[in-house]
Structures are given as structure tokens and as C-alpha cells.
Backbone:
């Protein structure tokens, strides 16, 4: 996961729901893994926690607390609940796979650090429920199989990732007794697809240089072997992929529209997420190659209008 | 996930002779031979390209490629096929993608309309690249067809609805979503924007 699943907000109030869940997950991570565990906190998993919590009919309980990151001013955080507990387990399971990936890709001291961390994380993830472990393992092995074949089909790879994310959310929701509709499943699947797309576009240059797998590298192989420089080729690929990202955003917008009535909390914040954050983040990655989190800069540069 | 189109890999037309295919193969081998590259990442890409070129050549020369596909594609729809296409269009409007796809798969005659409808189904199922290729095939067969042209243009130049509209308020959302659907379902084919829903 990439850490791009987060709101692009102009003021803290606009992302208050997300922040509430983020602070809560951060604190839970520290409780469970010690203070250093906070470094492994994932925006994407926090997003899933926020998503499931917004679908849940259980009342949202909050409290004011200080922490190591905010020692002076107390923050409002969500009180620990079942969703957070399950998300925490999934977070470290995904970290385990991520470290395995680093282990494979990196060299030198980074490789040894990944091996050591992987060993530590693996000991902790033994408690992960088998159904969650299975769904992630299945998705990862499917992706790995296609990676080994140098699959160039971006849509297919992104969809496999989307299915994995959907499965993960479904299992966590089952364990927390949250009903998940087909609209919610579709939305999560598309979110997963979008994350995979953005990640591939964002990492393309680095993946070509470091000889790592990226479907776009194989899809546009002629371009990379042509006369353009690597940087120029990457920009061309981004432009060529723009129409697909647009379609994906359209798909997501429609899917969200159908899901909206089911969201019990933070509907406006979710509106902003689907209609503003995702398009803005996509445009920034397609234009600059990295996510831009400054709303004003993004609006000026990309011409995205926004009037609240 | 299949192999890349061998004709595209070698850059030859679909009606190319074996001699033309051989020539294209030789020139590709010269152009992409890994020994021509010094940087490791370029060497890796060239090796991958050579694999593609060899597979494409093998497929075209050894006859495993479907030489008859285009002649099949150009065939004219019969009466019952026209009816089937109408049914598929209704299914698309009702967003029954799996059923539409299943009916398309059962059809043996594959004129431009078949490729067009398959493209629409694939795109709505999330297979954007294959969907676009399918619509391109339809356009190659019937370049004058305005519906195909319009959908193709709309897909390629998908307007940034979020850039021109942006986030504003609740009332604007229906309009925005309908615009998104219009891009998706291709020119209101499957979206009744008049009713305000998608």
C-alpha cells in the first residue's frame, strides 16, 4: 500500500473524521507495538478503519487525550473498538508482506534491516485470524504469479489488487458484524484498483531504473527502448494513462453515489474525498509524479475549482 | 491476461505476407538486441522485448495466430444477430455486464457492432485497455460509424469533469455524477441522467 489514501483538506475541520480515526489507530499501534510501531502506521489502513466505522451502526465514542506526538494539546480520538483491533492486525500482516518485498528487492544494509524487521513482525502477526491471513496470502500470491510472468496488463493487475482489498474489508466487516453491501464492495474494489494504478504511475521511473516489476514498464516497453530519455518516457506514459485514470475516477464517483445513503457518518467528508481528494491526488500524480497535499497549490496548478 | 497482439509487436499490417513478417522480425532483432544496450535496466527491457518479438514471430509464422479472425470480423450480421445485438444493448443499459458478455461470447459472427459492444462491456467491467482496443477494432471495420467515433473520442479525450466542476455543494453532485456516468456509460447509453439518478 502506498499511503495516498488520505483526504486533501483545506482545514483540519474538513478531515476531522479521518483525523479522529488516524490518531486513534496511531495510539493503538503504540499500545500494541511500542512507540516505534507508530512509524509503520499506514494511511491506507486508517482509511479502511474510517470506511468501516462510517458504515457501522454502533455509536462512535470519542475521548480527549494527549500522546507522545501531541504532548501539549489534547486530541480527540476514537475510543478503541473491534474495528480498530481488526485493522491493527491487518496493518501488521500487510507490513509483513511489504517487508518480504523489501527483502527481495533491496540490497546491502536495507536488505538486512528488512530481514530483521520481518522476523519481528512475523512473530506478532501470528495472532492474525486465519481467514484474513488467507485472503491476503491468496491475493499476494496471485499478484506474485503474474509479476513472475511479467504481466503487462495494468487493468488486470490493478483489479487483482482491488479484489484483495475488497476481500480484506469483507472479512474484517464480518468479524465486526458490519453488513457490507455490494455497493460498498464495489467501491472498495475500485479504491484498490485506483491505489494500484497510482502506485504504478508514481514508482515507474524508479522501477525501470532498479529493474523492479511494474506493469507499465512492460506495456510501454517500445517507448522505453526508443529515443526519448527515461524521464521523457515516464511523462509520456503518464499522459497516455490519463484517460484510464479519468474513467476510474468516474467509476468511483458513480459507485460512491450509490453507496452514499449507507454511510451513517461523515457523509460530507466522504463526498469531499471522492469528488475532490481522489481527483486532485490523481491529477497531481499524473502531472508531477507525486501526490501533492497542499490544496491551494493543487488548485492553482491543476485548475481544480473548489467552492464550499 | 494474454500475449500482446503479434501484429502490433512486429509492427506489420494484419494482411502481411510471411516475407513481410520475416523482414519485420529481422529488423526488430537488429533494433532491440540486448547487446546494443550498455545500461543494465535497458538490457533488461531489451531482453523482455526480444522475448515478445520471438513469441510474436513464432505465432505468426507457425500459424498459431488466428488468421481468419479479421475475415470473420468483417462478416455481415444476419437477422438473428441484429436481434441479439439489440438484446445486448438492452442488457448494457440495464448494466447487466456479465449477461451481455456471455451473449457476446456465444456469437460466432463478429462484425464491427460485436467489437463495439464488447468494448463497452469491458470498459464498464474495468478492463479499460482491452475495451479501448475492442472499440478501435470496431472503428477499423467501420470508420464512418458516428456512434463509434463519438464514443472513442469521448474515451480518449475524457474531460476532467472534476476540473471544470470541482467540489461545490450537494445540488451539484447529481450533475457531476451524471457527467461521470456519461463518460463511463458512453454518451448516456446506460445512464438516465434526466431522472437524476445514475
Residues:
Amino acid at each position: 500500500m502506498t499511503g495516498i489514501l488520505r483526504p486533501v483538506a483545506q482545514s483540519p475541520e474538513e478531515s476531522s473524521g479521518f483525523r479522529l480515526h488516524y490518531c486513534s489507530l496511531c495510539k493503538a499501534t503504540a499500545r500494541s507495538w511500542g512507540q516505534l510501531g507508530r512509524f509503520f502506521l499506514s494511511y491506507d489502513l486508517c482509511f479502511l478503519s474510517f470506511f468501516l466505522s462510517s458504515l457501522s451502526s454502533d455509536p462512535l465514542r470519542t475521548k480527549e487525550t494527549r500522546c507522545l506526538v501531541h504532548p501539549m494539546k489534547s486530541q480527540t480520538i476514537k475510543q478503541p473498538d473491534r474495528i480498530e483491533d481488526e485493522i491493527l492486525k491487518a496493518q501488521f500482516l500487510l507490513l509483513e508482506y511489504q517487508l518480504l518485498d523489501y527483502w527481495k528487492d533491496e540490497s546491502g544494509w536495507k536488505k538486512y534491516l528488512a530481514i530483521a524487521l520481518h522476523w519481528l513482525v512475523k512473530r506478532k502477526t501470528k495472532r492474525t485470524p486465519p481467514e484474513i491471513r488467507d485472503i491476503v496470502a491468496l491475493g499476494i500470491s496471485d499478484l506474485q504469479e503474474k509479476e513472475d510472468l511479467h504481466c503487462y496488463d495494468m487493468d488486470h493487475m490493478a483489479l487483482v489488487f482491488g479484489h484483495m482489498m475488497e476481500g480484506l474489508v469483507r472479512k474484517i466487516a464480518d468479524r465486526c458484524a458490519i453488513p457490507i453491501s455490494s455497493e460498498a464492495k464495489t467501491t472498495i474494489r475500485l479504491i484498490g484498483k485506483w491505489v494500484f494504478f497510482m502506485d504504478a504511475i508514481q514508482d515507474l521511473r524508479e522501477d525501470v531504473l532498479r529493474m523492479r516489476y511494474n506493469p507499465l514498464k512492460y506495456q510501454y516497453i517500445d517507448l522505453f527502448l526508443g529515443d526519448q530519455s527515461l524521464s521523457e518516457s515516464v511523462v509520456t506514459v503518464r499522459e497516455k494513462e490519463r484517460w484510464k485514470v479519468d474513467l476510474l475516477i468516474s467509476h468511483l464517483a458513480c459507485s460512491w453515489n450509490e453507496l452514499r445513503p449507507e454511510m451513517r457518518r461523515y457523509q460530507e467528508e466522504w463526498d469531499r474525498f471522492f469528488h475532490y481528494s481522489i481527483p486532485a491526488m490523481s491529477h497531481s500524480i499524473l502531472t508531477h509524479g507525486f501526490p501533492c497535499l497542499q490544496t491551494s497549490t493543487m488548485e492553482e496548478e491543476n485548475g481544480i475549482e473548489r467552492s464550499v | 491476461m494474454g500475449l500482446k497482439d503479434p501484429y502490433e509487436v512486429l509492427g506489420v499490417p494484419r494482411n502481411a505476407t510471411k516475407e513481410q513478417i520475416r523482414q519485420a522480425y529481422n529488423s526488430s532483432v537488429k533494433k532491440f538486441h540486448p547487446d546494443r544496450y550498455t545500461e543494465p535496466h535497458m538490457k533488461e527491457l531489451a531482453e523482455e522485448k526480444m522475448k515478445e518479438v520471438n513469441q510474436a514471430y513464432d505465432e505468426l509464422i507457425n500459424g498459431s495466430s488466428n488468421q481468419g479472425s479479421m475475415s470473420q470480423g468483417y462478416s455481415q450480421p444476419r437477422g438473428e444477430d441484429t436481434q441479439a445485438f439489440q438484446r445486448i444493448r438492452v442488457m448494457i443499459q440495464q448494466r447487466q455486464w456479465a449477461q451481455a458478455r456471455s451473449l457476446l461470447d456465444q456469437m460466432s459472427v463478429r462484425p464491427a457492432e460485436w467489437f463495439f459492444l464488447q468494448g463497452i462491456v469491458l470498459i464498464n467491467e474495468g478492463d479499460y485497455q482491452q475495451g479501448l482496443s475492442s472499440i478501435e477494432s470496431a472503428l477499423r471495420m467501420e470508420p464512418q460509424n458516428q456512434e463509434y467515433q463519438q464514443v472513442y473520442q469521448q474515451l480518449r479525450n475524457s474531460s476532467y469533469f472534476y476540473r471544470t466542476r470541482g467540489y461545490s455543494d450537494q445540488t451539484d453532485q447529481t450533475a457531476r455524477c451524471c457527467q461521470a456516468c456519461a463518460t463511463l456509460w458512453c454518451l448516456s447509453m446506460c445512464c438516465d441522467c434526466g431522472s437524476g439518478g445514475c
Chain B has a mean pLDDT of 77. The radius of gyration of chain B is 21 Å. Chain B touches chain A through 42 residues (CB under 8 Å). DSSP finds eleven helices and no strands in chain B.
